[in-house]
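Lab intake sheet, docking and co-folding queue.

SAMPLE TYPE: protein with bound small molecule
LIGAND NAME: zinc ion
LIGAND FORMAT: SMILES
REQUESTED OUTPUT: full 3D complex as structure tokens
PRIORITY: normal
SUBMITTED BY: R.K., bench team

The fields below were copied directly from the construct record.
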Amino acid sequence: MSPQERIQQFKNMADADPENELCHFSLAKAYLDAERSADAADSFERVLQLNPGYSRAYHLKAEAQLKTEQRAEAIATLRKGVAVAAARGDLMPRNAMGELLRSLGEFVPELEVAREAPRSETGDGSFLCGRCHRSGGKLPERPFKGEIGERIGATICADCWREWIGMGTKVINELGLQLSDPRAQEVYDQHMKEFLMLEA
Ligand SMILES: [Zn+2]
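RESULT FIELD (auto-filled):
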């Protein structure tokens, strides 16, 4: 698929479901990959309007802003992103954005990280979802076999899983995925991991 085709597909998805942050996130990444950095920054901004807690979107928005020479804006985005990620306990995005700030010669505020995420147990042993950070609502069992299924069963709540089922159906329809094709399965899995924040 050409970069232009990918952009068009995600644009169709975002137009069909304008309140869906993942559609805009996918569109923004497609713009970024195609070096359309100004469009990417706009789309990441839309993601953050829909979900101000989406820490990876701050990081990628800042990268897009740096590519369009918006250094001051990128630094502002990173500062906000570091604070949001720390408050949510999103350790890896927080550290990555801290690194980027440092590489720009900027001061990185020492923020206390709320807790390491994703992790499936709170201190008292109850379940905490790695995506929405709400407690309770653990899946009764892993949703499918294999390593990713195990991780989802251990870290993702039933509500988030249900949300993904709805979103996954849209991904299949909009992208015309034939899941018997291993490459289509790969695209689907990538969207799933992104949606469930399994590799933030
Ligand atoms: Zn959840």
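REVIEWER NOTE: The mean pLDDT is 87.
SIGN-OFF: pending second check by T.M.
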